[in-house]
Structure formats: C-alpha cells, structure tokens
Amino acid sequence: MSHGTPYPEDSDVLVRIRGLRTRLGGKTIFDGIDLDIPRGRITAIMGPSGTGKTTLLRHITGQTQPDAGSIRVDGREVVGMRRGELFDLRERIGYLFQNSALLTDYSVYENVAFPLRQHLRLPEAIVRNLVLTKLQAVGLRGAAELMPDELSGGMMRRVALARAIVRDPDLILYDEPFVGLDPIALNQVLKLIRTLNDTLGVTSVLVAHEFAAVSRVADVVHLIAGGKRVASGAPAELARGDSPWTRQFFGGAADGPVPFQYPARDYALDLGFPTETAK
Amino acid sequence: MKARSNSRLIDSVAQIGACGLFLLQIVGAIPKSLRHFRETLRQIWFVGAMSLVIIMTCGLFVGMVLGLQLYYVLSIFGGTAALGTVVSLSLYRELGPVVTALLFAGRAGTSVTAEIGLMRATDQLSAMEMMAVDPLAYVAAPRFLAGIVAMPLLACVFNALGIFGAHLVGVSWLGLDNGTFWSNMTNSVDVWKDVVNGLWKSAAFGGVIALIAVFQGYTTPPTSEGVAYATTRTVVFSSIVVLALDFVMTAFLM
pTM here? Predict the structure, then answer.
C-alpha cells in the first residue's frame, strides 16, 4: 500500500475504505482506493471533475454499491448491507445533495421538518423550535414559509444544509456545499460547518473544488485522481506539496498528470484538416 | 431485423416481470405507508377530487349520447320505455368503469407518472432514501392505494351523471314518461350483480392504472425525454390493460 494507513486505530476512524473498485458505464472510477475519514474532524475530498467524488459519497451511504472493496462506517460494513440496516445507518448521517434535492411540494419549513416528522414523534412546538433554530443558523428563518421554487440556488443549498443537520447527525456528507453561495453566505456556512464540528464533535466530509474555502475549514484533505488517492494531508501541507498531482491541481495547469481534455479523437482530424496520417 | 424484434419482445416481457415485482414491493410497503396515512388522504384528494370535473362532464355527455342513440334504436321496436334500464345497465356494467378508467389514466395516471419522474430526476427520491424514508412507503404505496379508493368513487359519480344525462335527453327533451324511466330501471338493476360488480371492476382498474403510473414514474430515466416517454407509456399501457382486464373480469363476473 503506497500511502500507508494514516489512522491505524479504528476508534479514531469513522469511515475506513479499503481496496475500493468501481466501474461505471465502462469507465474505471476507482481502482483500488484506500482512504480513512477521521472521527470528529473535517475531511475534504478534492479532485478533478468526473473523478468520482460524489460516487464515493454514494458508496459510503450505500446508495450505490462498488464492484469490490470494503467500506466500514463506524465499524459496520456498508458493502452488501441490507436495506433495513442501511436505513438505520442513514438515520445517523446527514447528506447535502449537490443539487439540494428539496421536496418541491413542501415549504422550506416543512422540508427541514421532514426528517423530524418521519422519525420522531415530537410535539409541534419542539419541531418548530428545532426547525427555526437550524434555519436561523443558515440565515433563512425569514424564508420558512416560502416554497423551494421561490428560492435562488444558493438559498436552496442553505435550506438543504439546514435539513441535513436538523437531527444533529454523527456524520455529515456535504456534496459541493459552496456552489452558488455569495461571499457572506459562504462565510456563514464555513463557520457553521466549523461550529458543528467543534461543539457537537460531528464528523464532516466535504466534496468541493474551492481550495481557498476548503483550506479555511478542513483538517484533512484527500486528493483523488485517476481512480486512486494521490495525496493526503493538511491543506497547508498539500498546497506546499511538490508532487505533480498537487502542483497541477492547486496550480490549475492544463498540462500534468490529469488531462484537461476528455479523451477524444485527433483535434485536426475532427475539424476536417488534413494531417500527417491522412496524407 | 428479427434480432431487434426479439430483443423488443424480451424487453417487454422483462418490463412486465419488473412491474410484477414492483407490485410485490408496493404491497410489502403498504403496512409502513399506513404510518403516512395523511399522505394517502392527500393523494386520494389529488387523484380523486381533482379528477371530478372531467369525470362529471364526460359522464353527463356519455349519458346524453346514450339516451339519444338508444331512444332512437328502441323506438324502432316500440320499446322506449326500457331506456332507463338499458342506459343504467350499460353504465353500471361496462361504460362506467371502463370510460372512467380511461379518463382516470389520462387525467390522474399521467400526472402521477410525471410527478414521480420529476422527483426521480431531481434526486428527491434519493434524498428521501438518504433521510431513511422509504419512497416505496411514502411515495409509491399512497398513490397506489389512492387509485384503488378513488376509481370506484369516480365511477359512481360518472354513472350518476350518465343516468342524469340520459334522463335529460329521454324524459325532459324527448318526452318519455318520468315514472316509466325510473321504475323500469329500479326493477331490472340488481345491486350486487350490476352495481357492485361494476365497482369491483373499477377498483381493479384503479389499482392497475396506479401501478402502471407509479412504476413508469419510478423507473423513468432522469431526463426530460425519459419523463415524456414514461407519461405516454402510462396512457398507452393503462388503456390496453384496462380493456383486456375488462374482458377477463366480465367473463368471470358474468
């Protein structure tokens, strides 16, 4: 194992991924990935587009199954887990979808109240307090009675965030939490993620591209590319790192180990120009 | 060419099998869905009450046309007194359940398919699964139950408006005696054989249409074209299955 095992004790690791292999639509997404999510810390998963970051979150929550490998969440194997057990596990997980995935027939208030109403029989006054507290944390208490189609993309994301944390889960998975947020909202969301981690000891996993935002909040960053984990460490360490992966990813160069272009035919041939081989 | 038609046949058989398995999953999710009984009530309102206007309008016109045509035919044999009987029997036994089912597929089935298809496309079903809420129990089963409950009620309304339409034409317009119309009808219609058998059919049609609508929405590819095709398939498959099932049920219930 080229990267070793940074968190050998299972009690320190909430999610342990070993030898993960996935092929989707004939393309290899993961080619034997090993990765640990430390308990009570904020871990960011970064990597080029289409590298399987969202797929990784979907594997961790059992929404999709990998072809091979092992994913243990709090010591329980998720791969091959039965539906009932998965639902038990998910009651302790908050998940922020990339496209917010709000229930469009329900108001903002009812969206955030939805997990509470489905699983707990709480008096309405307590539901109201919990929902309004979470909405206040994301700055949208005043929008409680609006419908999702009356919100902007960034506001929807904040509502989805309030819904993901309304039951105070042990593990929160954020899929692209910073997209569409203005600088004020971004600042508040970063503070919220940090506060949840500091006060409640929540383990957070962020999938994001914005290194500046990630470096302000994440304790550990895993960089995945080409189906492998290519670098791990604290954000500052990675930014200083001199591996070709980190240099290209954080420097934004088009050339490097990660190709900018999706695999394609010869450019000149595609444009209809004669090439050496055509002659 | 032959290979393509073979693969289409295999696809169709596989779809029927998948739909059957889906039915079993929905039935299995019904006990859990009763916890969301308000959602079932909301769906009964949505597919039932919201379909009332179209069902009432169509029922009225179907009854009026029936009254007009049958009055003409019966007058050839001097049997116009039997108008109420013939109209009510054809409505209770066949036209009520079948026409209501076809309208129900067009009005409620399509909206259920499009709604669930869009929920699939916008990750709402995945979001429910991630919140440990089973979409089969929260989304599919309430709509299935709503179809079974709403269809017989809508068929009753259709029948009532149909008889009213035939009465309008036969009695108010063409001058048939009011007492003859009603008394011949009440003498020859059997509650169990005619009315209740028709309601059984309606409930079965409601279940089949709701199953097809939910299945199509649930399994649609998450694209705008996928949702459009799924909606079309709901109407086409529902209509064929309703007419075929009508023949089978009529043969058994006769």
Answer: 0.84
